[in-house]
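Troubleshooting log. The previous structure file for this entry was overwritten by mistake, so regenerating from the original sequence record. Sequence copied from the archived sheet and checked twice against the printout by T.R.
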Amino acid sequence: MKLTTNQQVSVDGVVENNGRWARSQFDSDAMSWNDQAYQRADAFLFGRRTYDLFAGYWGVRGDLENPIVGALNTKPKYVASNTLTDPQWTGTTLLSGDLATAIQELKARPGGELQVVGSGTLTRWLLEHDLIDEMNLLIIPIVVGQGARLFPDSGPDLALDLIESRAFPKGITLQVYRPAGRPQYATDSAE
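Regenerated output below.
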């Protein structure tokens, strides 16, 4: 399976508490893309905090005709945690211990897409361990000013190949990237 991440991120890189500042910026086109992204997933991978939030909100809803509710409640879910012991959301498997090996085993399975939604801390860890195949960034036209950011202030640096870019009517942009190893920097030369 291809491991993809879907992040709603402010212009200044904040991913924390996006429900507070991102949803009002979604128009029907951006929401349609979001719904299709959930439908495209074969399985979901969550960090502990996002899992708890999603299980408490999406996991208790029964309106399976909703594209997000239907996807999240009918497809396999994996949660990366060394503190969770008994995940209650139906269809959830706990990943603990050697997380890199567990995720590599999931990626080796047949299927289309293992999707990480939110889970900023997990996404940063996946980037550090070269486990992400594709990143979908929905950039929300807002500067939040504070909160956890998707990319840390210090390393590692990473080159990204842009494979798709799209603007939605209310100003959200979609940037789809493929990690491409370490960047090549220009060398200083006296000319």
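The first helix runs from residue 18 to 21. Archived copy saved in two places this time.
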